[in-house]
């Protein structure tokens, strides 16, 4: 597929799924803006992209900071004249505890990044895209935890269910302006986030794998492939979808 000359924003682009998606879309011809709080890692990603012959730049962004997404997108448009695509991927896990033990501060932090952060980004992105003849395409990172619930992850579950509702609302409202909005729902992906959630415990990971119809976790590139397709013109009639990428987990 081709993303030739598209200006693409990727939040959380410094590692994991975001990093893999940056590399995939740059390979497909896009100019990718790597937006992340981890500036040093973001520069590593940009160097990686350029060494492979692609085009990318760094944008320091904390999606939980009020107004930061709008400022970042304004800067991108000022430099490049437009924003064609966005992958709102930045996220955190939060503490794995029972609902009764959730610290209100942790609840607020998880929702501020995983839900309000996505809202802030999508609001600023659509505000730009409605004024473009070409419209635009947006993909949000939800999770299997937006489709079903995992125990001891109440805040994360709530935020990711919210991302799916936000995705569908935006798709319905802005489809007439040629703006497509979809979500990906990754399952167990080999990223630093999974390692952290599992405590880097191989026994825990083996237990997860044994419950997957496809008996393995996915690589981040397997999610990146789906994101790149959804953002591309090849998915031109696809909007409002929450697509599981989970090895069959939610089919059970």
Summarize the structure.
This protein is of the alpha/beta class and 252 residues long. The chain is built from eight helices and seven strands.
Provide structural commentary:
This protein is of the alpha/beta class and 252 residues long. The protein has a single domain (7-189, 219-251), classed as 3-Layer(aba) Sandwich (Rossmann fold). It is 44% helix and 15% strand. The chain is built from 8 helices and 7 strands. Strands 3-2-1-4-5-6-7 form a 7-stranded parallel beta sheet, with helices on both faces. Helix 2 (39-51) links the parallel strand 2 and strand 3. Helix 4 (104-129) runs parallel beside helix 5. It is globular, with a radius of gyration of 17 Å. The relative contact order is 0.15.
Keywords for this structure?
252 residues, alpha/beta, seven-stranded parallel β-sheet, Rossmann fold, globular
Walk me through the topology.
Elements: E1 7-11, H1 16-27, E2 31-36, H2 39-51, E3 55-60, H3 68-80, E4 85-88, H4 104-129, E5 136-141, H5 154-174, E6 179-186, H6 192-197, H7 202-210, H8 220-231, E7 242-245
Parallel strand pairs: 1-2, 1-4, 2-3, 4-5, 5-6, 6-7
Oligomer: single chain
Give, in spatial order, the strands making up the sheet with the most strands.
Answer: 3-2-1-4-5-6-7
By DSSP (H or I, 4+ residues per run), the number of helices equals: 8
Rg for CA atoms = 17 Å
Low-confidence stretches: none
What's the number of extended β-strand segments? 7
User: Can you tell me the CATH superfamily?
Assistant: NAD(P)-binding Rossmann-like Domain
Biggest β-sheet: count, sense, barrel? 7 strands, parallel
Note the beta-strand portion: 15-25%
Instruction: Please state the average pLDDT score.
Output: 93
What would you call the structural class?
alpha/beta
Helix content: 40-55%
- CA-CA gap between termini: 31 Å
Shape: globular
CATH arch. level architecture: 3-Layer(aba) Sandwich
Order of helices and strands: EHEHEHEHEHEHHHE
CATH fold category name: Rossmann fold
CATH class: Alpha Beta
Our count of domains comes out at 1
């Amino acid at each position: 597929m081709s993303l030739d000359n598209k200006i693409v924003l990727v939040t959380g682009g410094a590692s994991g799924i975001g990093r893999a998606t940056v590399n995939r879309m740059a390979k497909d011809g896009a100019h990718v803006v790597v937006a992340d709080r981890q500036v040093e890692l973001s520069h590593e990603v940009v160097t990686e992209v350029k060494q492979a012959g692609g085009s990318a730049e760094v944008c320091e962004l904390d999606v939980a900071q009020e107004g930061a997404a709008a400022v970042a997108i304004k800067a991108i448009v000022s430099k490049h004249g437009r924003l064609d695509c966005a992958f709102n991927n930045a996220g955190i896990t939060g503490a794995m505890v029972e609902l009764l033990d959730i610290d209100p501060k942790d609840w607020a932090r998880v929702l501020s990044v995983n839900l309000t952060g996505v809202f802030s980004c999508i609001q600023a992105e659509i505000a730009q895209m409605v004024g473009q003849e070409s419209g635009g395409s947006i993909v949000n990172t939800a999770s299997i935890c937006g489709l079903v619930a995992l125990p001891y992850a109440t805040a994360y579950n709530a935020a990711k269910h919210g991302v799916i509702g936000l995705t569908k609302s935006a798709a319905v409202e802005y489809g007439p302006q040629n703006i497509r909005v979809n979500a990906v729902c990754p399952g167990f992906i080999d990223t630093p986030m999974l390692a952290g959630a599992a405590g880097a415990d191989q026994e825990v990971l083996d237990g997860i794998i044994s419950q997957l119809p496809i008996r393995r976790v996915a690589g981040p590139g397997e999610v990146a492939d789906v994101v790149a397709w959804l953002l591309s013109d090849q998915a031109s009639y696809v909007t409002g979808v929450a697509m599981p990428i989970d090895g069959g987990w939610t089919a059970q």
